[in-house]
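Q: I'm building a small set of examples for a reading group on sequence design. Run inverse folding on the following structure and report the sequence directly after it, with nothing in between.
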């Protein structure tokens, strides 16, 4: 390891450094999708949700608008806890339903991007006077970091089919943490992108304007910024394909030439021409595969609602 390699970037987060070292040291190089989401990455994702090819966000929103008023009134939801809240675009549909039911008290947006979260929280406090907004910065893959003494019943929301970004074992661990934070009257609302015509799915991750490709490459800029690495994003191609066995999209960055990247604190990482770095999986589900995730986490599917075309589902989970 060269002298330069031993000196880590001044403010490199040790946990990130360890996770990146492990991911780039694996036979199939892989890094978790959370490293897409610096401010630029969160903005690019918002752009993706507006793309004609990317159907999940608008489809989920349609189901939310149809279902939430009745569901929330029935549950008497006083607290909304949202995992991976991002811009909270969709949360407003739930918050509006809680306000209409006269039960809206507390909103807890949880997100890994602190800056994005504080902007979101400030905007929501202005839009919903009287609603207590208690943002929690957390990596939902590790912990939930919930405020204490929240008014119940609470609704835990995990939207956008972000559950699909977790390998099944990780997904079950996350669901177990949610289950552990639930009380008997609480419910869990989860969005799941459904299995369908593969070409339709692949188009959603290979948009004609190249926004997803930019979003994918943004992970390299985050590593350069956070760890002082010297990735050249222009020497990596975007690739997204459907892996039928595992029913999932895989996103990769493909090295367009043999190259060596230096990351202070890790050392030199070499890429062969054509070698890939897997940056995201996006698992697609059906009712059975969702139930198979819920069961080991102590949850049962209480209700299930899809759009007329069956592209996307919203699932309500209850303590089993
Ligand atoms: C909403 C985070 C789940 O996997 O579909 C969009 C992220 N990746 N385009 C997804 C994403 C590529 C998205 N999640």
């Amino acid at each position: 390891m060269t002298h330069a390699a031993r000196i880590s970037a001044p403010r490199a987060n040790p946990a990130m450094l360890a996770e990146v070292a492990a991911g780039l040291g694996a036979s199939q190089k892989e890094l978790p999708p959370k490293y897409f989401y610096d401010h630029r990455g969160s903005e690019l994702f918002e752009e993706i949700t507006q793309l004609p090819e990317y159907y999940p966000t608008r489809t989920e929103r349609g189901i939310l608008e149809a279902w939430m008023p009745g569901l929330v009134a029935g549950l008497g939801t006083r607290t909304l806890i949202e995992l991976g809240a991002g811009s909270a675009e969709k949360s407003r549909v739930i918050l509006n339903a809680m306000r209409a039911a006269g039960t809206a008290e507390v909103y807890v947006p949880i997100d890994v991007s602190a800056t994005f979260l504080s902007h979101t929280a400030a905007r929501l406090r202005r839009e919903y006077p009287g609603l207590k907004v208690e943002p929690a910065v957390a990596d939902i893959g590790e912990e939930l970091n919930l405020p204490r003494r929240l008014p119940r019943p609470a609704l835990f929301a995990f939207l956008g089919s972000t559950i699909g970004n977790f390998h099944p074992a990780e997904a079950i661990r996350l669901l177990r943490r949610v289950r552990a934070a639930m009380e008997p009257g609480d419910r869990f609302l989860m969005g799941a992108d459904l299995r369908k015509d593969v070409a339709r799915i692949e188009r959603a991750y290979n948009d004609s304007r190249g926004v997803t490709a930019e979003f994918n490459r943004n992970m390299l800029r985050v590593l350069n910024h956070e760890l002082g690495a010297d990735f050249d994003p222009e020497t990596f191609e975007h690739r997204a394909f459907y892996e039928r066995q595992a029913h999932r999209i895989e996103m990769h960055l493909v090295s367009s030439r043999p190259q060596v990247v230096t990351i202070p604190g890790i050392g030199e990482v070499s890429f062969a021409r054509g070698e890939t770095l897997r940056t995201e999986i996006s698992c697609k589900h059906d009712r059975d595969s969702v139930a198979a995730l819920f069961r080991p986490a102590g949850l049962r599917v209480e209700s299930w609602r899809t759009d007329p075309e069956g592209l996307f589902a919203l699932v309500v989970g209850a303590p089993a």
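The radius of gyration is 20 Å.
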